[in-house]
Specification:
The complex is a heterodimer of chains A (344) and B (128).
Chain A: H1 3-7, H2 13-53, H3 69-78, H4 90-107, E1 117-119, E2 122-124, H5 134-155, H6 159-190, H7 195-200, H8 212-225, H9 237-240, H10 250-275, H11 286-294, H12 296-307, H13 313-342
Antiparallel strand pairs in A: 1-2
Helix pairs in contact in A: 2-10, 2-12, 3-10, 4-5, 4-10, 5-6, 6-8, 6-13, 8-10, 10-11, 10-12
Chain B: H1 4-34, H2 66-88, H3 95-117
Helix pairs in contact in B: 2-3
Classes of the chains: A mainly alpha (344), B mainly alpha (128).
Chain lengths: 344, 128
């Protein structure tokens, strides 16, 4: 239900199409601006919070309370030279960061972020594209983003980068299955792949109440998906220096950086949509509820970064294959039994 | 055959991708125009903790987890088949659905049990 639904049924089809197109463009620009703005703000929030966790102030020199720090960071990166190592594979080296940034942005295309707006009898859906295979689209995109890490690490032709890329791939094959499997019960309960339908299915209660195990599995997998501590093996700074993005500099490094932070926001929004009822909530407007729920995951990730040590990568693989995977398979069968007994 | 609505939805995703690319490319171009460039041979070397870079990173070595990767590949396809099963779950009612899911998941689990028993999930330090 996007543009055609708004366009059909009137005589001036052409006009309606143009109007729908303009609405879509406005929505796209707004979503991108908010998403990238949140990513920039998150950099500051992370540094501030990390400072507080470690009993220091964090950045407080640029602007009032250090609020302009993201701007300063951005200008600094803009002014840095973009160096490509002589021995690197030039084309792949230059394209790899885009894979990380683009896929994390693309996932957000199917995330509904507020209740549908009705202006003069015309419904404007607050989602870019309500794909009927939304959930599969999310899984596909999150798998593709690993190419940015693995290829970026390989193309640099540097030992540390290569190790980072290989660890990234190891990480993917450990958590990806459990992540997909933890969403199967959600589909069983909501009977739809569309993220809009999944939010609508949570009108009475959020799925975290009926799927606590799936929620926990998804949360652990999302830490691995975001490449954050305790699962930041691909970039483990005290053994691999910076891992897969070590040879990157300037704006190309910024692309990786922005991709990582957009990814945190996107994972937060996925958790909100699948388990916390998306934009639904009492009293406050939908968009406020949505933003509040989205911020849970980034805060949790920053908190865990400040408090947990890093896993070794065979430990991570054991966690994925021996704990999370059996648990998520068991969860599917139990969910099936419960649905059968209670009748959904 | 894709319906018109679905086509429009995918067009919207395509447009979104295009906008994202524009958002990413503009800073790259701006940066390319205004940066101060340095010169020298050393700056194009890959970083190795300040030492002279020794050899290429593109050499042959063992990726210890390749068996995991093989199992992952098989498993990932199976998981994809589990989604339609989940979608249809409860449509026909009764105990039959549960038995079918049980068999499906059971066979999937057997693959893990088999790999586990075979010792795939143990990392041994390799002797020369």
């Amino acid at each position: 239900m996007t543009m055609p639904a708004m366009c059909r049924g009137t005589g001036k089809t052409g006009m309606m199409w143009i109007l729908g197109f303009i609405l879509l463009l406005i929505k796209l620009v707004l979503v991108l601006a908010v998403l990238l703005g949140m990513a920039a703000a998150l950099v500051l929030v992370e540094r501030k919070l990390l400072g507080r966790f470690q009993i220091r102030y964090g950045p407080n020199r640029v602007g009032p309370f250090g609020l302009l720090q993201p701007v300063a960071d951005g200008i600094k990166m803009l002014l840095k030279e973009d160096i490509v190592p002589a021995s690197a594979d030039r084309v792949i080296f230059m394209l790899a960061p885009a894979a990380v940034a683009m896929t994390s942005l693309l996932i957000f295309a199917v995330v509904p972020f507020a209740e549908d707006l009705t202006v003069r009898g015309r419904r404007i859906p607050m989602v870019i594209a309500d794909l009927n295979v939304g959930l599969l689209f999310v899984l596909a995109m999150s798998s593709i983003s690993i190419y940015g890490i693995a290829l970026g690490g390989w193309a640099s032709n540097s030992k540390y980068s290569l190790l980072g890329g290989i660890r990234g791939a190891a990480q993917l094959i450990s958590y990806e299955l459990s992540m997909g499997l933890s969403l199967v019960p959600i589909v069983m309960v909501s009977q739809s792949f569309s993220l809009v339908d999944i939010v609508n299915a949570q009108a009475n209660y959020p799925f975290i109440l009926v799927q606590p195990v799936a929620f926990l599995i998804f949360l652990v997998c999302s830490m691995a998906e975001a490449n954050r501590l305790p699962f930041d093996l691909p970039e483990a700074e005290n053994e691999l220096i910076a891992g897969y993005h070590m040879e990157y500099s300037g704006m190309r490094f910024a692309l990786y950086f922005v991709g990582e932070y957009v990814n945190m926001v996107v994972i937060g929004s996925l958790l909100a949509v699948f388990f916390l009822g998306g934009w639904r909530g009492p009293f406050l407007p939908p968009i406020v509820w949505f933003l509040l729920k989205v911020m849970i995951v980034p805060f949790f990730l920053i908190w865990s970064r400040a408090s947990l040590p890093r896993f070794r990568y065979d430990q991570l693989m054991h966690l994925g294959w021996k704990v999370l995977l059996p648990l998520s398979l068991l969860n599917i069968v139990v969910t099936g039994a419960v649905i059968l007994v209670t009748g959904r | 055959m894709l319906s018109k609505e679905i086509m429009v939805d995918f067009l919207a995703v395509g447009l979104y991708l295009l906008m994202g690319v524009i958002f990413a490319v503009i800073p790259l171009i701006v940066s390319w125009m205004i940066v101060k460039r340095s010169a020298g041979v050393k700056r194009e070397e890959t970083y190795e903790s300040g030492m002279q870079t020794i050899g290429s990173a593109w050499i042959q070595f063992t990726v210890a987890y390749y068996i995991y990767a093989l199992i992952f590949l098989a498993f990932d396809v199976d998981v994809l088949y589990l989604f339609p099963v989940a979608m249809a779950y409860g449509k026909y009612g009764g105990i039959r659905d549960l038995v079918e899911v049980f068999i499906f998941v059971g066979i999937l689990s057997l693959a893990i049990v088999y790999a586990w028993c075979k010792g795939v999930f143990e990392w041994k330090s390799r002797e020369e």
